[in-house]
Amino acid sequence: MKHLPASALRTAAYPIAFGAPVAGIAEPFRTISLFGLDLASAAPEKAAAHIVDRAGAGERTAVNFINAHCVNLARRDAQYRRDLQESDLLLPDGIGVEIAARLNGVEVPHNLNGTDLFPLICQRAATEGTGLFLLGGQPGVADGTAAWACGEWPALRIRGTQHGYFDRAEEDLLIERINASGAGILLVGFGAPLQEGWIARNRHRLQVPVVMGVGGLFDYYSGRIARAPQAVRALRSEWIWRLAMEPRRMASRYMLGNAVFLAHAAHEAVRVRSWGQRVDVAAKRVFDIVAASLALMALLPLLICTAIAIWAEDRGPVFFRQNRVGAGGRTFSMIKFRSMFTDAEERRAALLAQSDRAGTCFKMQDDPRITRVGRFIRRLSIDELPQLFNVLGGSMSLVGPRPALPAEAGAYRNRQWERLRGKPGITCTWQVKGRAEIPFQRQAIMDRAYLRQRSFVTDLKLLVMTVPAVIGGRGAY
Predict the structure, then answer these.
(1) How far is it, in rounded angstroms, from Cα 21 to Cα 128?
(2) Which of 54, 113, 278, 313 is deepest in the core (most CB within 10 A)?
(3) At CA 285, angle to CA 105 and CA 276, rounded to 5?
(4) Of 69-73, 187-191, 391-395, which gets the smallest average pLDDT?
(5) What's the whole-number mean pLDDT along residues 53-70?
(6) The total number of structural domains that make up the chain
(7) Is the Cβ–Cβ distance between 289 and 392 less than 8 Å?
C-alpha cells in the first residue's frame, strides 16, 4: 500500500462545480485578495455553520486552506495554483496570511485554520444530522479522529473512514464507497498539494456536497501528534511548536519557507502599494519576524529556565500581561516574564509618591513588589524577552518607543503624543543610553527624533547597542 503519488494526481484536471448562493443561507464571508487568490474571511463559528448548512442544502462546495507554505507551493507549482483557484472557498490559515494582509494594506482576515474549525464543524454537524467521511492519514489515524469526535458529540454521524495509503487501482471502489455513505462533508487529509489535486481530479465523481482539504488535521485529533498548548496558540506561534516536535521534517518548511514567504509578501506589498515609506514599513516588518523567530529559537533554553525559576519562587503565574498603548493610540496586551509579586498592581497606588522618576512614568529602584528572581531578570532585561511574541503578532516591533500604560498615555502633554505615531518596540534610543536614568521628558524627545529619522540602518545600530547596554545594566530596575 502506498500514498497516491503526485504524478497520479496530475493526470487530469477537472473543473470544480461552483455552486450558486443557496436560498435561506446567509453568506457570512468577506473576500480579500492576496497573491492573486481570493480568500474568504468570517468568524470561525459562522464559517463552520455556513459550511455545514451548504452540505445540508446539497450545495456542491470545495473548500481549501491557504497558509504561508501553500503560497510558496503555489508559486512554483502551476497545477496546484489552478486547483486552488478552482475552489469555492479558500480560507486563510495562520499568522503568515495575517502578516501579508497587513503589509498589503488589506483587511486582516480571521484565522480559519482547519484544526480549529473541525470541532465547530462537528458540533454543528451533530446538531443538523450531517454525516462526515474522513479520508487520509496513516492507517488508524482517521479512525482515531472519528472516535474522538464521537466521544465529544455522541450524536455525530461518522459515515466512514479511510487511511490515505491506497493504490490508484483502489480509487474507483473508494469513491463508490464514499458516495454510498450518505456523508454530507468529506474531509481529505493528504496534505498540500496532494489533497487539492485529488479533490480537483475527482470532484466530478464525488456526490458528497462539501469536500474539504484538511492537511494533517487527523494527526492531532487522533493523538498521533501533540498540538501546541493553548498559550502558544494564543501567541500565534504554533509553528514554533511544530518545528520543535518534528525538526527534521519541518525545518525546511519553517526556517527556509517562512523567510521565502515573507520576502514574497514584502515584494507583493511593494508591487501593489506606493513606494517610499511603505517599502520601509514592509522591510521592517519582515526583519522583525525573521529576527524574532530566530531569537526565540536560540533563547528557548533560557526562556524555559526562567519560567521554572519564576514558578518555583512563589508558585505564581510565569507570565504577566498588561494593557499598553501602541501605534495610533490602540491598546494591546503586552507579555513579560512576571518579575513582581502577584498583588503588585494593587500595591502600586500606595507607592506612587515614592517614584524615582519625576513626571508621567512611575519607576522605583527599590520597589518592594519585585521578587528575588524578578530583580535578577530585570537586571539583565530577561523579563522583556516574551515580548518577542508580541513582535511576531505584530503589536510591537524590535525597535521603537517603549509602550506606555494607558494612564501614562493619558497624562501626555503637547508633543509627547507623537510617541504614538510608530509601533512600540522592545528597545529604543533611550533604552541604550541610560534607560530609567533618563527623565521622561527627555525620553519623549528621543522617541520623536527616532520616529522622524528611523531607517533600517538605525534599527540595526540600536539592536547592536542594546547588547552592551543590557550587560552594563545602567538604569535597569
Answers:
(1) 19
(2) 54
(3) 65
(4) 391-395
(5) 95
(6) 2
(7) yes
